[in-house]
Amino acid sequence: MIPTRIRMLPRRGIAWVVIVLVAFEIQTCLSQINRASFPKGFVFGTASSAFQYEGAVKEDGRGPSVWDKFSHTLGKIIDFSNADVTVDQFHLFDEDIKLMKDMGMDAYRFSISWSRIYPNGTGKINQAGVDHYNKFINALLAQGIEPYVTLFHWDLPQALHDRYNGWLSSEIIKDFATFAETCFQNYGDRVKNWITFNEPHTVAIQGYDVGLQAPGRCSILLHLFCRAGNSATEPYIVAHNMLLSHGAAADIFRKKYKAKQQGSLGISLDVMWFEPATNSTNDIEAAQRAQDFQLGWFIEPLILGDYPISMRNRVGDRLPKFTKNDAALVKGSLDFVGINHYTTYYARSNDSLLRDLVGKVLNDSLADSGALTLPFGKKLKPIGDRANSIWLYIVPQGMRSLMNYIRQKYGNPPVIITENGMDDPNNALTSIKDALKDGKRIKYHNDYLTNLLASIKEDGCNVKGYFVWSLLDNWEWAAGYTARFGLYFVDYKDKLKRYPKDSVQWFKKFLTSS
């Protein structure tokens, strides 16, 4: 019932009161946490990637990547855009670093473009590319921002894909190791935190199973969507070669650079949390398999030395085997585990008939887990409120559940949340003024951070940092410019001007309060 005083207001006044009440409700629903709530030394930062941020794709000798080719292929990007310019951080990094500093962020996670250092993937070093990242790193440190550097964030040099099919060939292991060592040599005196790969699971599935991302290989539905590929085998080969490449880079780092440079090295894995759709044994087991085929696929070789037993049993000979030397190279090759966590889904067991049918029709690795993962439960009720992206449902408690799962199953390794965030739509009809009002994003980060804090303080999870995806709105892969994940709004129509959303002020207060 509307109070009498409000009922007497003119319509315009009522609208204003409603807005105030909604804003008040959002603020009062937020938990009272801030930087001081977290352990001393806990790192807060924002995250990005070279291809999504830099632009300048043909400047200073950079060679093309598989994403350059993919994004210029008709029909691959939903809004027909490309990342030739994107937010132009290549030229505007000084401005962006000031934004980080003003917010009170401790660190910035970015990636180095492999083809900017080695335009052909290997061979002659492009000194102009090396110099660019030296300037960037020095500028970060000058403002007190700690660099966290990712070596591979999806932008494989096109030359290596053309030469030997990239991640499908074991030849790439030595080439990646060479690239990694070049980075250790040139930047390791200042970069103390390295991430070898960003989301190898996404690369394997989206790039080589369903073909929705570069290089766009698949065999589902009789090659209806892709000209080449094998969705039942290639994802496993790609993942295996990435794990061995990580191991090779980690081996070089530990033998030649770690002690001298006092650095650490990890990997960033994309991980959903999965809740059983029902309390049935079948669905509980399906949720475990779903986790095995996502997180376990990568973390178990890196911590335990082999793939999960459920994968071995269900994939059989299509799953590559580690030699004794390979297992020794990969096992224990992490100083920390990076986790990119956004959402939680339900997991339901596929009955054998459906699984066999899906396997025969799609002929892909996704059918191997025997788990159907969806954001809908009984009567198609969503698991949580949805952000803009069709896959991103807001389920903050999934963060705490996931941290505890890692603690209990894998011996509580050091964890850094290397990505967490949500997006708004890029709506041409929305004014910039209205687009800056992102109360939903504020609540998202507040609630996920509250659950993360509980996992640390109450449960004993060994979490060391949290990186927001992302500092700026940017080019979001196959979604192009349709999704805005940034704390800062980027005006793509007016010289890429950056405008702080309300979440910037929230983080500034969060990071400076005691």
From TrEMBL:
<keyword id="KW-0732">Signal</keyword>
<feature type="signal peptide">
    <location>
        <begin position="1"/>
        <end position="31"/>
    </location>
</feature>
<dbReference type="GO" id="GO:0008422">
    <property type="term" value="F:beta-glucosidase activity"/>
</dbReference>
<dbReference type="InterPro" id="IPR033132">
    <property type="entry name" value="GH_1_N_CS"/>
</dbReference>
<protein>
    <recommendedName>
        <fullName>Beta-glucosidase</fullName>
    </recommendedName>
</protein>
<dbReference type="GO" id="GO:0005975">
    <property type="term" value="P:carbohydrate metabolic process"/>
</dbReference>
<dbReference type="Pfam" id="PF00232">
    <property type="entry name" value="Glyco_hydro_1"/>
</dbReference>
<keyword id="KW-0378">Hydrolase</keyword>
<dbReference type="InterPro" id="IPR001360">
    <property type="entry name" value="Glyco_hydro_1"/>
</dbReference>
<keyword id="KW-0326">Glycosidase</keyword>
<comment type="similarity">
    <text>Belongs to the glycosyl hydrolase 1 family.</text>
</comment>
<dbReference type="InterPro" id="IPR017853">
    <property type="entry name" value="GH"/>
</dbReference>
